[in-house]
Amino acid sequence: MAPKRRAASAAKAGGKKVKQEPETPKQKDAFTSAKEALLAAGPQVKGNRKVDEYCSLSSSSEVHEDYDCMLNQTNIGHNNNKFYVIQVVKEKNSYYTWNRWGRVGEEGQSKLNKFNDTEKAVKDFEKKFKDKTKNNWSDHSNFVSYPGKYTLIEVDGDQDAEVKVDSVDGKNVKGITNVQACTLDVSTKKLIELIFSNDMFKEAMECMNLDIKKMPLGKLSKIQIAKGFEVLEEIEAAMNQKRGKKRLEELSSKFFTTIPHNFGRTRPPTIDDKEVVEKKKEMLMVLADIELAQNLKSETEKAKEEMIETVPHPLDQDYNSLKCSLTVMDKNSETFKIIEKYLKVTSNDHHKPKIVNVWEVDRQTEGERFSDNDDLENRRLLWHGTNIAVVAAILKSGLRIMPHSGGRVGSGIYFASENRKSAGYVRTSKNTGVMFLSEVALGKEHTITKDNSSLKKAPAGYDSVVARGSVEPDPSKDISITLEGKEIAVPQGKPIEQPQFSGSYFSNSEYLIYKESQCRLRYLLELNM
Q1: Contact 369, 21 (CB under 8 A)
Q2: What pLDDT shows up at residue 288?
Q3: What is the DSSP code string of 100-149?
Q4: For residue 44, which of 294, 392, 318 has the smallest C-alpha distance?
Q5: Which residue in 369, 376, 344 sits closest to 521, CA to CA?
Q6: pLDDT of residue 501
Q7: How many separate domains does the chain show?
Q8: Residues facing 480 on adjacent strands
Q9: What is the CATH number of the domain that holds 385?
């Protein structure tokens, strides 16, 4: 299957987990690791600020120094979910303060004040900031949130989400002599365009009710995402201590203030259910992975700046940033036909995905890590579906352990032997979805037929856990393929009833590993869903 949604961030796959050898001090799950990594990264370098898109001044106007802030406030009890923008804007020899406020997701109201000199405009900005937040602008890097006041939303630099290309296909722009032709084949070129697409990232965020005006693409703040993780920890603690509805309402307001959501005119919901907390964790991991992908794009932009004479094509730069080899597969090859049959016989009868392309995947260093499991037999090629917004992050960092305390088989990486199971975790963009086939070193399997969400590792003496479904692809039709000297089982039969597991709580089998090193990405499938 794929994970409980997100793999790197999609499904049960997401942050780093320390290699499980002799158990040293307490291991950290992906949730904790991601939060700490985001906080450790600290503030990012601020770029040029962009004048608010609704400001009535001319396009030649600009934000004065760093006098620009985005504020947010959610109060569920009062049905508040509102924003406040304050800027000092310079146009020619005049200075203005620009204020815009209203319900999240709407344009709201606005006011433009003109001043004869900088000092008066700055003073007006600072006064408004103090009125709205109770903080002094001079100390905004140490911002403190106060009840009933707005909170400062951390965004990084220019809020223009679009990556600027100085030159494409050899046309000279901004003094760059030449941009090399793209070296990627047509199919891979389209895939890279898709998994780095700003439109796709925006679509993914909007599907999660996130307000992309407050957390603009390309400028997602690591600190802001980390703050979201911290509020979720507070909500979990309040649930465990059985604190009342009022406290959960306050903390939910704090979460939606920290991570702006667009609920329209609907009252923001109280987060009072552990399953909802898990979904919000997944959402933040998706956000962190989008931030990672956007950061990869900014790295390629830096490379462009450093190479004045001749610049690789932007798509080549994006591809190289993944540090992952993708080789498009010949559709007449034997392996392609095996994968195609595996997809066909294990898909949903009414909604069969159609293969557009298949790529062989070889992530740098993943093979070396996977070789730690050379002594483990019982290898299978298994499905993993995910959100298309995190595919770049998965290719860069691999499948990771997501801490799904609510997951049916605990905190591990989830796989399935039936495509229809994993397809449920795929999040598409314009009907295009991505799924992975991984080689999984299962070793000795521990079988369960009932939920056990407390699992964080396979029981002693076992290497994996299999939640056996009441149906399974006909085992008698399995075939073996050989990769790097190892035989890997690949289902080729339709799912059939498994009488010995007729009482299982699981309809379809779920295969769990609790060490990231036990899987290796082998194939990426682009599917028309």
Answers
A1: no
A2: 87
A3: EEEETTS--EEEEEEESSHHHHHHHHHHHHHHHHSS-GGGGGG----TTS
A4: 294
A5: 369
A6: 96
A7: 2
A8: 489
A9: 3.90.228.10
Last residue of a domain, one of 116, 134, 152: 152
26: CB partners within 8 A, 6+ apart: none
Q: What are residue 49's phi and psi, to 5 degrees? A: -85, 150
- Give the whole-angstrom CA distance, residue 22 versus residue 446: 20
Other Cβ atoms within 10 Å of 328 Cβ, number: 17
Tokens of 459: 């029981």
Q: How far apart are CA 466 and CA 455, in angstroms?
A: 12
Phi, psi of 355 (to 5 degrees): -70, 130
- Residue 485 domain flag: yes
Q: Are 34 and 14 in contact (CB under 8 A)?
A: yes
Out of 282, 510, 516, 526, the active site residue is: 510
Lookup result for tokens 């059985």: 242
In tens, the pLDDT along 148-161 reads: 899 998 776 544 43
Name the helix (H) or strand (E) containing 414.
strand 413-416
Query: What does each C-alpha distance from 511 to 121, 208, 340, 468 come to in angstroms?
Result: 61, 28, 21, 8
Residue whose structure tokens are 């965004």: 155
State the SS3 of 419-436. HHHHHCCCECECCEEEEE
pLDDT tens column, 490-516: 999 999 999 999 999 999 999 999 999
Q: Which whole number is the average pLDDT over 75-101? A: 93
What are the beta bridge partners of residue 360? 327, 523
Alpha carbons 27 and 50: distance in angstroms, whole number: 42
Q: Supply the DSSP symbol for 60.
A: T
129 domain-assigned: yes
Among 122, 152, 182, give the residue marking a domain's end: 152
User: For residue 236, is it within any domain?
Assistant: no
pTM listed for this prediction = 0.78
What CATH number did the domain enclosing 69 receive? 2.20.140
User: CA-CA distance, 478 to 279, in Å (whole number)?
Assistant: 35
The residue range of the domain holding 142 is 62-152
Q: Which two tokens stand for residue 338?
A: 């095996």
Identify the CA nearest to 85 among candidates 73, 105, 69, 106.
69
Q: Is residue 55 part of a domain?
A: no
Is 510 labeled as catalytic in the residue annotation? yes
Exposure letters 517-527 (e unless 16+ CB within 10 A, then b): bbbbbbbbbbb
With CA atoms as reference, report the closest residue to 68 among 145, 122, 108, 143: 122
479 touches 487 (CB < 8 A): no
8 Å CB contact between 286 and 10: yes
